[in-house]
C-alpha cells in the first residue's frame, strides 16, 4: 500500500456494525455516506475481539460501532471495544418489515447495525458491568422461586390423585405445615403408597432446600442493591427484588437515560397517544420492559395497602370516578418519576442506626413507642432495622426519644 493510500484510509470516517452469536461475530464496515466497504467473521474469543477491532480500524477512523446484543452475545466485544476508547451503541434487531424486505443473514444484519449507528437510529449507550453481579443474583433468586413454585404445584397435583389415606392425612394441611410433614415422611405400605409417599417426600425436601436457597440469595441481593443505590432501596415499597429489577432495567450508567419520560417509556409506564379525528385520548403502554413494569406494579400495590399518602390519593381518584386500573396506571407513572430521581441523583437516606440503641437505653418498649405514635409495634421495629422507610416518622421518633 502506498503512502497516499494509507493516508486516505486514515482520513476516511467509517461506522461498524456487529451481528453477534454465541461462537462468532460478523463485523461489517460502512463509510460515513453509507457505502458498504467490507465484512468478515470472527470468533468470540479474546483474539477474535482484537482481530475484529483491528479489522474495523484498518478501514479508517471508526466513529461508532453498532452492536446487537450488547448485554448477551455481544457483551465481550462491547467490553473490549469500550476499553479501547471506541463509541459503542446498542442496536435492536431489525423489525419484521425490514427483514421481509431485504432478507436475513449475518452480513445483512451486520450492515443493518452499522447503518443504524450511522443514521442515529441506534444511539443508546450499552449497560456497563456495575450491575452484572446484581443481575446474576436476581436471575438466580428468580429461578429458585420458580422451581419452588413448580415443586409446590406438583405436590398439590399428586395429592389430588393420591390414594385416599394419603389424601386424608396430608390434603388438608397448608403451606409450611404440609411441607414439613411431607419432608419427615417414612414411606410404608404397598407399592403404590411407597411410590407416592417417596415422590411427595422428595418434592417437599426440594421445596425446603429451594426456600433456604432463595432466602440466602435474597439476603445477598439486598446487600448488593443497598450498597449500589441506598436511596432506591430505601424508597417506600421497594424491596430487594423490585430494586434489583429496576437497576437491571436501567443499567448502572445513568447517562443512558436522558429524561424521566424516556425512563417511563422504557418501563412501559408512559401513556401512549391514541387519538384520531375528534377523539383525543391516551391508552396504557403495552411496550417497554415488562419485568420493570411488573416491579412498578408491585410497588404500587404495597403503597396502596400501607402508605397513607397513597391511600388518600386512591380515595380522591376513586371519588373522581377513576377505575382501579386507571389509578394503578397513574401511580406507576408517579413512582417512575421517583425511581428516576433515585437512579440518576444521589439520594440521602436519613440515618436510623441510633434509634434502637437510644430507645433501649431509655428502657422504652416497642409497644410504648408504637402507642405514642398510633402505629403497630412492627412498624417501629421495621423502621429501626431499616426494613422500611418513613422519613417523617423517623424524625418525629428521634425528636420524641430526645425529649422523652
TrEMBL record:
A molecular function GO annotation: DNA binding
Domain of life: Bacteria
Xref: Pfam families: DEDD_Tnp_IS110, Transposase_20
Alphabetical list of InterPro entries matching this protein: Transp_IS110-like_N, Transpos_IS110, Transposase_20
Domain Transposase IS116/IS110/IS902 C-terminal stretches: 235-314
Transposase IS110-like N-terminal domain sequence ranges: 17-159
GO biological process: DNA transposition
Protein's UniProt name: IS110 family transposase
Protein source organism: Streptomyces xinghaiensis
